[in-house]
Amino acid sequence: MPNESSVSKFDQVVRGRSLIILAVADVVLFIVANVAYGPGHEHGLRMALSNVAWVLFLVGCILLIALAVTVLVQSVVRRAKRSAPTL
Known about the structure:
By secondary structure, this protein is an all-alpha fold. It is built from three helices and no strands.
């Protein structure tokens, strides 16, 4: 039964709302990275801000994909458990 407890805590963290918030934050980071990059020939603080925002965007994108796959796998497992015949 401890497995169900950990799954329910994971479900509480990864809800549709938190996935949406992560996706919106990812879009904002993408926009910030592109706006800060500017014409592309500048150096200094703007380039550093662009690089940091770009790295955070990529981390958020990977995290979003991983969480989406996890939610999808959990959904498939739950459906399989519901449709499995009990002996």
